[in-house]
User: What shape does this take?
Amino acid sequence: MMSNKRLRLLPVWAAISAVFVIAGIVLMALLGFNNALDLPESKTFDVYYNVVVDLSEERKASLETYCEDAFREENISFAKKQTLEGQAAPVSQTQGAFSPTGNDFLLRYTFTADVPDTALAAAMQKVNADIEADDAFAQATAAETFVSFDALTVQPMNEAVWRGAVAVAVAAVVALIYVAIRFGPGCALTGLVACVNDAFLTLAVFAIARIPVYTFAPMLYAAIAAAVSVTLWLIRCMKLRDDAKTPAGALSAGECVERAVGATDKTVLLCAGTLLAVLAVGAACTAATGAAAVFAGALIPVAAGLYSSMLLAPALHVAVKAKFDKLKKRSVRYEGKKKSAKAEE
Amino acid sequence: MGKKKSVVLLVIYTLLIAVLCFICTVSFSYGTDGMYAFSSVMRMMEKDADLGLAYGANADAGAYLGGGYSAVYYPEGVISAREYRDDFADNPTSEEAQNYVRYPDENGPVYLEKDVACDADGKMTNSFKTAFADALETVTARFAALRADGARVESVGGYAIRVFLPAMMDGEYTAVNLFANTGELSLRCGTDEATATDVFSVRSDETIADYVSAVNARSAGETAYVEFVFTDAGREKLADATSGAAETAVTLYFYVGDALIINLSVSEAYDQNTLYISGSYTPETAATVAVLMSTAIGGSEDDLPLTPADAYFHPALYGESTVWMLYLTFGIFFVAMMAFFFVRYHRLAFVHLYTYLLFLFVNILCGWAIPFVYLSVETFLAFLCASVLLCVSDAVCFESARKEYALGKTMTSSVKTGYKKCFWKLFDLHIVLAVIGFLTYAVALSSLQTAAFVFGLATVFSGLASLAVNRFGWAVMMGTSKRQGAFCNFRREETDDE
Assistant: This one.
């Protein structure tokens, strides 16, 4: 009789996973992931300037001030500010590499797509007016600055995404074939379900919670989920195999799993905890950079792997092991009958 | 192991680690006025364009700062408002200036040419919209086919295309330059470009695909080349065109639209289905030319001509301090790891330290030596995961031996039995994870592919380090200590005497 309550709650864990995964798949199909970090739709406000006529550092700084004052006045805020260095136009086939012109620069402000064109147009007029009113600029030629704004839409390149999904699926299946050979098909089946669950659960969490991710990241997280899931499940499998070697009386499938789970809980928690801690440190250290999102996002697949290893996979394996034990017994009985029939002949 | 032998081996082991540490991490200048520089492997290792840190032999001079290059492809009939101002500021009422309309309104960033991109009222024509959509699709397909991590194509307001390539390729310029060429692939043959005639003379009911079935990039060793695969009809036409080449050398001119991309001198009749052109291609430029030619097979003479302009260098996506932050992360991980091992295993932690350092330096050397491996956030993440695996594996081995020692066995027997008990467990774990890493590498693309390879490789090293190197280090270091239980912080189980 199993005393561990979580092993008896398979329908609950399955329902939780199913709800998340189904909702996630629907959202993935309808909305995809929140790729806000890559700004799939954006608007850029560009101030071009050149230094042929000696645009001094102060005047470059004043361009920034004019722009940011104008944005404040229009009540709009930018997501990114960059100063880009102009390169010779890539029109010559004999040239092998980009080369800076040395006198063309672009002050670029990137906005989200919901910023109205009217506000950007008003900001543009204001910046132009400020430049015109600035004596320092007025003394120079009119061609040294130019203000414009554009709306941009990123074109999807999906090959990396679907290849990533296939890669994770293939890798998980092959790895679990190895598990089937070494630990038995029951362990592999439970591992496969856990692995698929964790990969989808991870993607579902990103899709449902609309957590911002880079375009490449979802499949990276699915791969991490698969690897973590398989690792944590292997720890359980090793104990199950060890227990199977030692005669412990006629234990039911539930009791076997309960014993293995009880003995390996600490190891599983330690492994997952260590990984979570390392990722959290990575996210904290890179907090001021764009890489923090990659580390922080990686916490979710590890957490998903921990969830299935602690709750879903052991509960499922009770049922799977019972079924496989039954099949095994039946096959042993059948083999025995065949042998006795042969002996009688 | 005898004490003398242990000491000798330990010294050699320590020297090896010290040398590797020096090679991998120390950079310095020497000679008069620091004329020569010794660059560490870490410095030489390729870095992701998103990280933005100078690397390579000229890192001090800021050889590389990550980031990438962007350019805007303006279709025929579209010019930027800045270009319009530069061209017509002096004479805005000229007939030519009047032939342009600012788009989409008086604040628009471009001007459209009447009867080319817009009608007389300044409204963009449907034919232009369709042609632009086709051109955008072609350009996107070309950049996607490069499979460069971080490549980006954006539609600018439905009137221009902005492309971006990370500064990690050898040929960003070539790609941006060549991919602006639209139109159909054509092949001309003659003694000079002006008099060259079309080889295939594609009829109205045919396309170039009836003559050229594929264009691929190949490489063998250092040589990269572009491979043209002709159909039988194409082969016949090419043989006809070059039949007199033995007497008078001719040149084959490969065009995309109106742009000449390749010219190839032929001095004998060419009668084969496959034509290889090597020239001075690198694998990347050969791939770029092959992608261009391959997509041009489906092109047509009605394709919208594009002109590349407005090229800029962009700073790294994650910011220039990211690499230092990654090193800081590693530092914290390393200190925490060693603190745990020293507290729990006392001097046995040195065994893990040596094992881990060897694992670290071998990974760094591989990261530098394997051409497609580079330091990125993803590969760093993969390396960290494998590091955790090694720490867990070493801890499992130590704990396994600790249990045996507690039962009253000798240290040698405890280590032997401990390893025996956990060997297959750790073996299975490493095999499964290495399989996941390498299979993901085999199928996936770009950053996931590289990260998966690093994970697979680091997992293999972790397995070797944990199951072989760690045991060797243990045997060597333990041989130097008389009180082996205290060395490892292992204790016997206390039994009550009744």
